[in-house]
Amino acid sequence: MVFTTPAIGAVRRRFPTAHITYLVEAPAAPVVRHHPGLNEVMVVARPRGLARLRYDLRLAGRLRAERYDLVIDFHGGPRSGFLTWASGARQRIGYALPGRQLSYTTRVPWSRSLVPPRHSVLNQWDLIAPLGIEPPTGATDPVVMPIDPVAAAGVTARLAAAGVPDSAAIIVLHVSAGNPFRRWPTASFATVAAQLALTEHARRIIITSGPSEAEAARSVAAQARAIAGPAADRILRTGEFDLSELRALVGRAALYIGGDSGPLHIAATTATPVVALFGPTLPERSLPWRAAAIASIGVDAGPLPCRPCHQRHCVPGDFRCLTAISPTMVLDAARTLLATQP
Predict the structure, then answer these.
(1) How many angstroms separate the CA atoms of 224 and 187, rounded?
(2) Both 194 and 127 in a single domain?
(3) At 73, which helix (H) or strand (E)?
(4) Final residue of a domain: which of 131, 166, 191?
(5) What is the pLDDT of residue 177?
(6) Claim to verify: residue 204 and residue 84 sit in the same structural domain
(7) Are 114 and 186 part of one and the same domain?
C-alpha cells in the first residue's frame, strides 16, 4: 500500500481542487491517515461470510451516493473490483485482470511476470498514466507516510522508559518470520544484532516484529544478548510497535535493517538509511523509492535459477535465496551506511 502514496500526490497535482477519498481497510489505514494529498480516508471493515456480503452491499450504496467522477482501483482484488464498479463513477481505472471486464472503463495492461523486474511504484503509477500524468522519480515523488504526533510521543516515552538516552544511535532490526519466504534465520539476525552492539557503546539495537513474529523476535533478542556478553544491555526488545509507531521509531533511527515486507516500505518513507534483505524478490522491485541521496543497500543471494519466484512453493525446498545471505554480508552493508553518518 505504501507504493500507492506517490500516486496520491500526483493525482492531487493533476486535480488540485478535487475532493480525494482513499478507501482502505483498517489495518493499513495509518499509512495514509495523514497524507497531505487526501481530503478523506474512508476506513472499511472486513467481515466474514454473509456479514461481508451485507456490509459490502451497504458500502456500495454509500460509494454510489457520493457520485464520484473517477475511481482508481490500486488493489485489483475481487472486492475492490466490485466496489469500483458499484461506485458508478464515469471513469473507473484498474488492471486488465481476468473477470474484471465490467469493473473498469479504462483497463491498464498487467502481467504476472516478475522479469524484467520493475519497481512496484511504477506498477501502481500505470493506473494514473491514463490521466496524462508523467512518470515519477524517487526524488520528485517519493513514498510518503507523515509522522503521527501521538505515535511519536508514545515512542519517545517508551524509549525513555527502556533507558535509551536521547544521544543513542538507534538501529532498528525488524524480524520477519511469519512468512517462510521472508524468514531470514533467527541465528543470522542475532549475530548481526550482537556484532553491531559490540562495536559501538552508544548504539542501541531495537528488535521489532509484527504480532505473529513476536516469539521469533524474542528468540533473536535472547540469542543476540548471549553473543554480545558485556554489550547485552544495548540490545532491546520493547514490545510491539503499530504502523504509526514504527514509522516514528525508524524516523529517529540511524539505520533500519529488515526483509522485503511492509515495515521495509514504511522505513522507506523516512530519511533513515536502509539495509534491505531480498530473498525471492529482487531489489529492483522494492528498494526504497525516495531521493537517491538517502542511502539504501539491497542484500541478496545473487542470481539463482529459481529467483525471483511467486512465493507459492520453494522449488529447491531449502529457501536458499534467504539462507545464502550471510550475517557478514548484512554487517558489511550496515557498516557502509553507518560510516556515512556524522
Answers:
(1) 8
(2) no
(3) none
(4) 131
(5) 64
(6) no
(7) no
Question: Which grid coordinates belong to 255?
Answer: 539505520
Q: Are 33 and 5 in contact (CB under 8 A)?
A: no
- The tens digit of pLDDT for each residue in 56-106 reads 999 999 999 999 999 999 999 999 999 999 999 999 999 999 989 899 999
Cα–Cα nearest to 317, from 302, 303, 301, 306: 306
- Same domain? 76 vs 172: no
Cell match 467481515: residue? 47
Query: Are the beta carbons of 36 and 146 closer than 8 angstroms?
Result: yes
Looking at the fold, whether 198 and 90 belong to one and the same domain comes out as no
Tell me which residue range forms the domain holding 335: 149-339
Residue type, 119: H
Query: What does the alpha-carbon distance between residue 168 and residue 102 come to, in Å, rounded to a whole number?
Result: 56
pLDDT digits (tens, 9 = 90+) for 241-277: 999 999 999 999 999 999 999 999 999 999 999 999 9
C-alpha span between 20 and 11 (Å, rounded): 9
- Output Rg (C-alpha) for the chain, integer angstroms: 21
CATH of the domain at 103: 3.40.50.2000
Looking only at Cα atoms, what is the longest distance across the chain? 66
Final residue before a domain boundary, out of 98, 131, 164: 131
What the block records as the C-alpha cell of 153 is 510521543
Q: What is the 3-state secondary structure (H, E, C) of 163-214?
A: CCCCCCEEEEEEECCCCHHHCCCHHHHHHHHHHHHHCCCCEEEEEEECHHHH
Q: How many CB atoms lie within 10 A of CB 303?
A: 6
